Amino acid sequence: GFSLTAAGRRLFLTRQGEIGFGPPEMKPGDCVYILHGGNMPSIIRSTRAEMDHTGSVDGRKQEPVYGILIGDCYLDGVMFGE
């Protein structure tokens, strides 16, 4: 995608062609989510959890996916419940 850093925010273009501004730390592959109870979209980066000492999580051999909150963003048409 396309990005440009200006005035402390990064201009980005989603895969769907939507234009937004986000934190300068965002990277290609980060996702836009509206968190429950929120009124602004946020940039989230997916990451895998480390296995516990038994090599499993909740008794299952899999790695859960967690998200790291990168920051809030402006996404045209997706603000304040639009």
TrEMBL record:
Domain of life of the native organism: Eukaryota
One Pfam family recorded for the sequence: Het-6_barrel
Descriptive protein name: Uncharacterized protein
Species name: Zopfia rhizophila CBS 207.26
Biological classification of the source: Eukaryota, Fungi, Dikarya, Ascomycota, Pezizomycotina
